[in-house]
Design goal:
The chain is an alpha/beta fold and 329 residues long. The chain has 12 helices and 12 strands.
Length: 329
């Protein structure tokens, strides 16, 4: 079944999520905007600390409390702004309309409850009127959907009794149990070996094709981006520095940071003595420079880059980059 890219289901506009700490104000997400269509896969890439996960947590209003909060911006899910909603209102949205697969299934699952209990807890949100036997059967069907072997037995297992790959499938079953329209997958393959990674990615693709849900995929792996995503947003130091289709980003990277990330991917054809790496470190998010945040690591930076932050430059259709020299380097 082919995926159908539909209308815009999620719009994020000028999102700012700050953490207020004793070191100062950490601008974890600092003016991020993007949209997501039904049936589309958006990849978010960038180094650790670039704001990928905090952006995802902001969409669900699950930022660490009391330090972090959304200070500005809009998150429109099917035209409905989530930012002003209360915790009680968000509980009706999480799982039912937008759900998340967290990075580490070992910490996502409660070790003192069985797999079945944790699945049923999620399913009850959507089917509170059903009996326990019916809910248990739904839990079994949920495990079947993510291709867990012997699901009738696995519902009685505790998390420590199943493998890492199986845990990640259970977390995926919990995420899709209430039939959400959007799933956020936060580096779901990080703790899996290569063979299980490929199986899990294939499974996510099959589920998406069957349900036509929208997917936000957070990853460091450009191989996964090429395999899974339709569009890519590259983040650096709390901001989106480039966005466009997968083809545009791979064939015509226009921000020096995107170019550097792609150069960092080892090539099987190249014969090199030393692998490429990006020199330097990202700036501290509580002490950001006035100009371009990549300027200190950029080989093309000049005085203007140090003084002023560049606005987005249109490179092509739906392809933008925030660089004074975008398309010229």
């Amino acid at each position: 079944m082919a995926r159908r890219i539909g209308d815009v289901i999620l719009e994020v506009e000028d999102l700012h999520t700050y953490c207020f700490t004793r070191f100062g104000t950490v601008k974890a997400v600092d003016g991020v905007s993007f949209s997501l269509r039904q049936g589309e896969v958006l990849g978010i890439v960038g180094e650790s600390g670039s704001g990928k996960t905090m952006t995802a947590l902001s969409l669900l209003k699950l930022t660490p409390r009391p330090a972090a909060r959304i200070v500005k911006g809009a998150i429109r899910l099917e035209g409905e702004d989530l930012v002003p909603k209360s915790e009680q209102e968000m509980r009706q949205i999480r799982g039912r309309r937008i759900s998340m697969i967290l990075q580490d299934p070992q910490t996502s699952l409660n070790p003192v409850f069985t797999v079945g209990n944790q699945l049923i807890e999620s399913i009850e949100i959507q089917h509170a009127e059903e009996s326990k036997p019916t809910l248990l059967q739904r839990a079994v069907e949920g495990l079947k959907q993510v291709k867990v072997a012997a699901p009738e037995r696995r519902v009685t297992d505790y998390p420590h009794q199943i493998s890492g790959g199986m845990k990640q499938r259970v977390v995926g079953a919990i995420a899709i149990s209430c039939e959400p329209k959007i799933i956020i997958a936060d580096e779901p393959t990080t703790s899996l070996d290569v063979t299980i990674q490929a199986q899990y990615l294939r499974l996510l693709r099959e589920i998406q094709e069957a349900t036509n849900l929208a997917l936000i995929f957070i990853t460091h792996d450009f191989g996964i981006v090429a395999k899974m995503c339709d569009r890519v947003m590259v983040m650096y130091a709390g901001r989106a520095v480039e966005s466009g289709s997968v083809r545009d980003i791979f064939n015509h990277p226009s921000h020096p940071y995107t170019q550097a990330l792609l150069r960092s991917v080892p090539s099987m054809d190249a014969d090199v003595d030393r692998l490429y790496s990006i020199e330097g470190q990202p700036p501290a998010l509580w002490d950001l420079p006035e100009g371009c945040r990549f300027a200190a690591r950029c080989p093309h930076a000049d005085d203007r880059c140090q003084r002023e932050y560049p606005g987005p430059v249109t490179i092509g259709k739906d392809h933008t980059a925030s660089c004074w020299k975008a398309g010229r380097v």
